[in-house]
Structures are given as structure tokens and as C-alpha cells.
């Protein structure tokens, strides 16, 4: 049974309002026998129809698509409606604020269109295996920007964490739940929650979502 699941093709819907890019990405992915393109769309509206019709496991979408619904809002809507579907966002624009918004909206990964040919297959593989993916070029920029945004000297804040806190911060960045971290480290859930609170305080994060987002960005930089 496990072999059968492992050999199933990953169904993908691609959404991009540039026909040439849409065709280029599709052609690249069709060369991989583990992937199946079940829908191509040049708009969010028709893309949603493809998603409902073909039930993909992964959606690749341009967040700068010209439509009535902003790309970031589309990701939010997808995440709310299809919680189990993976989402890979890509764009010509890779400014930190744009990448952050895509992550906050619920994307499982982000790549730039300039790096698409080199990185998209790796991104899909990582996301398929339950990991988060940001290309090395983007992640290094994001890591510095994220940890420096509150304080000019906050790049040193990460080193304020104890060895245990840094270990937990890394686990959070890998997407491991509090219960999972508790099991991995043989510590109680309440102890892990206490460490999370200390990490938030030391790194000056106001919310849990901010903690998780920055942990993911930091982890993918290494």
C-alpha cells in the first residue's frame, strides 16, 4: 500500500496570466514522470474552476496576476477553503514584504520567476514531503530583513536564545508542532510552551504566527 501511495503522481494546477510562462512551466514539469498537470489557467476565476474540477494536491500560482482578486488574497481564500492543498507562490517581485505576505497568507513555498527553471522541481519535492521552501537567494534576504526590522542591532537577538531555545526555534521552523517537539526532546508540552513564550519575548515577536513565520524563514536560510 505504501509503495502505491508513493508512486502516485502529484496533481498540479498552474495559474499565471502570462501564456508564455504558463506554457514554459507546464512543459518543464511534464518532463517529470512523478507530476501530472491537471489544469492550466490564466485567471484566478478559471483557476478556481480547475481546482474544483480536478482536485489537485498542489497549486502553483503567480501572486502578481492581474485580476479582480489580489494574488495574496487568493492564497488566503485557498488556504481557508482547501486546507490540505499545498500552495507554491511565485512572482517577478521578491521584495521581503511581498514574500512575507505570501507566507502569512498560507503559501507553503515561494520562488522567483527568475529562478523558476532551476528551483521549481526542488520546491515541489520539498513541499510534497511536508516541508516549507524558499529559494536560498530569497531566504537569506528574508532572514536578515525579518530579524532586523524592529531594531538596528536585532541581528544579534537570535544569539540571545539558549541552546535549548535555539533547538526549539529550529523545530518550529521545520513545521514541527508543540506536541511533536515535546516528543522529540522528551520534554512536557508545558515546558515547550514555556520555551516558546521565552523565544517570543527575546526575539520581540508579538504573536505566535509571527514566531512561526520568522522561525521558518530563519530555518530555510541554512
Question: In terms of topology, how is this protein built?
Answer:
Blueprint: H1 2-7, E1 10-15, H2 19-30, E2 35-41, H3 44-54, E3 58-62, H4 71-81, E4 86-91, H5 96-105, E5 109-112, H6 116-128, E6 133-134, H7 136-148, H8 163-173, H9 178-185, H10 189-203, H11 208-220
Helix pairs in contact: 4-5, 7-11, 8-10, 8-11, 9-10
3D structure, described in words:
The chain is α/β, with parallel strands linked by helices. The chain has two domains: 2-134, Rossmann fold, CATH 3.40.50.2300; 151-220, Orthogonal Bundle (Arc Repressor Mutant, subunit A). It contains eleven helices and six strands. The protein has helices spanning 2-7, 19-30, 44-54, 71-81, 96-105, 116-128, 136-148, 163-173, 178-185, 189-203, 208-220; strands at residues 10-15, 35-41, 58-62, 86-91, 109-112, 133-134. Strands 2-1-3-4-5-6 form a six-stranded parallel sheet, with helices on both faces. Strand 3 (58-62), helix 4 and strand 4 (86-91) form a beta-alpha-beta unit. Helix 7 (136-148) crosses helix 11 (208-220) and helix 9 (178-185) packs across helix 10 (189-203). The longest helix has 15 residues, at 189-203. It is elongated, with a radius of gyration of 18 Å. The protein starts with a helix and ends with a helix.
Amino acid at each position: 500500500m505504501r509503495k502505491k501511495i508513493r508512486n502516485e503522481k502529484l496533481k498540479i494546477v498552474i495559474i499565471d496570466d502570462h501564456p508564455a510562462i504558463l506554457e514554459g512551466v507546464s512543459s518543464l514539469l511534464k518532463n517529470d514522470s512523478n507530476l501530472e498537470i491537471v489544469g492550466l489557467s490564466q485567471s484566478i476565476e478559471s483557476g478556481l474552476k480547475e481546482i474544483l474540477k480536478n482536485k489537485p494536491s498542489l497549486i502553483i500560482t503567480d501572486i502578481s496576476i492581474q485580476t479582480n482578486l489580489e494574488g495574496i488574497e487568493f492564497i488566503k481564500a485557498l488556504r481557508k477553503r482547501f486546507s490540505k492543498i499545498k500552495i507554491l507562490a511565485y512572482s517577478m517581485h521578491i521584495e521581503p514584504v511581498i514574500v512575507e505576505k505570501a507566507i502569512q497568507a498560507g503559501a507553503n513555498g515561494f520562488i522567483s520567476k527568475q529562478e523558476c527553471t532551476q528551483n521549481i522541481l526542488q520546491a515541489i519535492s520539498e513541499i510534497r514531503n511536508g516541508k516549507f521552501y524558499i529559494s536560498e537567494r530569497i531566504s537569506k534576504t528574508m532572514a536578515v530583513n525579518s530579524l532586523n526590522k524592529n531594531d538596528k542591532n536585532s541581528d544579534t537577538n537570535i544569539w540571545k536564545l539558549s541552546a535549548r531555545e535555539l533547538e526549539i526555534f529550529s523545530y518550529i521552523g521545520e513545521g514541527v508542532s508543540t506536541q511533536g517537539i515535546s516528543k522529540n526532546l522528551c520534554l512536557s508540552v508545558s515546558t515547550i510552551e514555556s520555551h516558546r513564550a521565552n523565544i517570543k519575548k527575546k526575539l520581540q515577536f508579538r504573536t505566535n504566527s509571527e514566531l512561526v513565520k520568522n522561525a521558518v524563514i530563519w530555518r530555510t536560510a541554512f
